[in-house]
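seq:
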Amino acid sequence: MDLFGTEAEALSRVREMRLESIETAIGVPAKAWAGRCYEIACRAVRAKAVDGSPRYGHWLGPVAKGIRFDNSYPFQRHGWIEKGDGAIVDPTRWVFEGAQPYVYVGRNDHYDAGGNRLREFMERPCPPFMPDDQSFTVRLPAEVEGMLPPNALTSFAKESATVSFPQLVWLANLSLNRLGDFARPVYREIERVGMRALIPLDNRTAVLGEK
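struct:
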């Protein structure tokens, strides 16, 4: 018996079942999913065809020659679904591959939610505190204050600091890898001072689960 062939056929059947279940749930045939990646991911989750959270960011993987996304860009904007254990469910990965429609389920091999790898690459030093800038009284975890250079803020009370608007923009746009476990308290503090719009929506949704 050809075990490999049997496993390949079983995988193909599972993919077809997942594809058909999403098509049925959202009422849109797979052939019409190209260019609608995030919409399809959101609809699949809302219809409970997939258990997970929609994610939007960058596809960093290969792109087949001759398709509509074949260009010189190092990444493509893309939407997919992330399960609670970190596994990826991608109903439209096949578009980049120039393949027949199927639903990818597997590890995160080429996905960058929120474009955070690009954020890390483009990160610049925190701007210095300038007295003439608009400023805010914030309460930041000590570990986050430690990310900032000595001249980046002026501490004036225990667990509080005066931070300028450019510094708040810098904090809000740090990658999630840089913020780590402190992303939630930092985002909540930025919201508290009325600057919610500074936080990238994709990162905010990933951290706080809110639009």
